[in-house]
Every structure is written in structure tokens, then in C-alpha cells.
From TrEMBL:
The keyword Cell membrane does not apply. The keyword Transmembrane helix applies. Its main location: Golgi. PROSITE patterns: T_SNARE (PS50192). Keywords: Golgi apparatus, Membrane, Protein transport, Transmembrane, Transmembrane helix, Transport. Residues 137-199 form the T-SNARE coiled-coil homology domain. This is SNARE protein.
Amino acid sequence: MATADGSRRDPYDEAENTVRRNIRKLIMLQSQVLEELRTLPPNTHISLTTKGGELLNVCNGIEKDISELQKVIDTIKSNQAKYRIPSKTINQRQATIDEFRSKIKGVHDRNRQATTTATATVSCSSALAQHQLQTQKDLLDQQDVQLTVLNTSAQNLHSNARAINVELTSQNALLDDVNSSFDETQIRLNALGKRMAVFLETNNPSLLRLVITLSVIAIVLLMIIIVF
């Protein structure tokens, strides 16, 4: 805005334009810083980025300039008759200052949001990793239970197999005893047959068996007669 004589620009307008240029620079710096923050560990402070220090310095400088502009406006408002500046101009300048403050607030909000988003992303990743680990642990526990059941079944089968083996061994021994007894009986019968053959002076086995059978029948009948 020009002064009354129009020979030079109003210092307030110069200061306002400087703040406007610095805000544009600040927004560009913030874009670079936020892009770099995405590649850094979570909770990394802005000052640790390549452009972080410059960003903070520019932001602080702008806030100081805005405070100075606000002081000028407050001074003019308190003595408007002395400075002879129209109310419309004062209101426009106040609106510009409010706009500057809103932009600075937006910069601060985006900085906080970037940090919060990075932390939230890491938290979600950690939660997902913990969930996967818990799922794997549950699967391993289930496999352990199944292996325990299989081991118990295998032990039971082994015990049953041993019991069956013992029983078969016992049965085989009993069969061996029966076979031995049968062989011994057969030997005795053969010996008896030979004696009978000598006694009867015959070598005909059929005749011998017939004689033995008839003798047994006679003995049985005799016992029945005696008993009854």
C-alpha cells in the first residue's frame, strides 16, 4: 500500500509480502521434510531431517513477523484518528494476519499428523506381527497335542502287540505240549499194537485195531452193566 505522498511503499505492505513469501517457502520445506520422514524410523523429530532445522527456523521467523504485524494493527486500532487509516484497510490487514496464522497452524498440524501416522503405522505393524506370532504359537500347541495323542496311541499299540505276542507264545507252548502228548500216546499205542500182534501172532494192523476197538467196547459195556 502506498503512503500519502505516493513516493514509496508502505513498510507494512513490505513486511506483509515478506511473510507471504516465507510462508510459501515454509510449505515447500514442509513437503520435503514430510517426504523424508516417511523413510526414517518412527518418532523421528523434524529437526533431525535434512531440511528440518531450516523449516523450524523459517516457521519461528514467520510467527515473530506475524506478531509484529499484529502489534502494528493493534496500535493503529487504538489510535486510528492519529494514523488516519481507513477501517476497511485495517480489517483487510487483520484478515490477512488471521490467514497467515491459519496457514502456520496448518503447518504445525501436518507435522503432528505425520508423526502420529508413522507411529500408528508402526503400532499396526507390531500388532500384526504379534498376532501372527500368537497364531503360529497356537498352531504349534495344537501340533504338540496331536503328537502327544499319537505317541500315547503308539505306546498303547506297542503294549497290545507285546500282550498278543506273549499270548501267542503261550498258545504255541501249549500246542507243543499237546503235540508232544499226542506223539507220546501214538508211540504207546504203536507199542501196544506190536505187543498185541505178538500176542495174537499177526501183523495185520486192521485186525489189531478191530481187536482193540472191540476190547474197548466190551470194557465200556461191562462198566455200564456194573453201574446200572
